[in-house]
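[step 3/7] fold_predict: job queued, chain A
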Amino acid sequence: MSQSKVLDSISMKANSSFAAKQFLFAYVVGDQLADVCSAASNDVIGVIQDNPVSGAMSSIAVAGTTKIVLGDTVTAGTRVMSKSDGTAIPKSGACYSAGKVIHGGVAGDIVEMIIEKMYFAS
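[step 4/7] structure written:
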């Protein structure tokens, strides 16, 4: 089965080393500065697409479909949020949902997701 992908990305400086951080959620920490999400309360801006050193420019997917690393078991069609390590887990309670996975998997798997940023009050 073929799939057409459209991915919009922005460039931001990595606040820390993104080595081994590809396909994790990112959030804004300063002017043109992003880091890996470190709490469920972080307002996700997108998904890291590369692995630059600290201070180098990074490509962050902000719209379209992207790969994401799972931090728990997730089924296809589930809305996800960031875990404290930047991986994707099922949305729960009041949170920023970053999108919906289109392939299920277990912790450590890299699956595809549609970026759909939304805030849920509960």
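[step 5/7] annotate
The radius of gyration is 13 Å.
The domain at 7-64 is CATH 2.40.340 (Beta-clip).
exit 0
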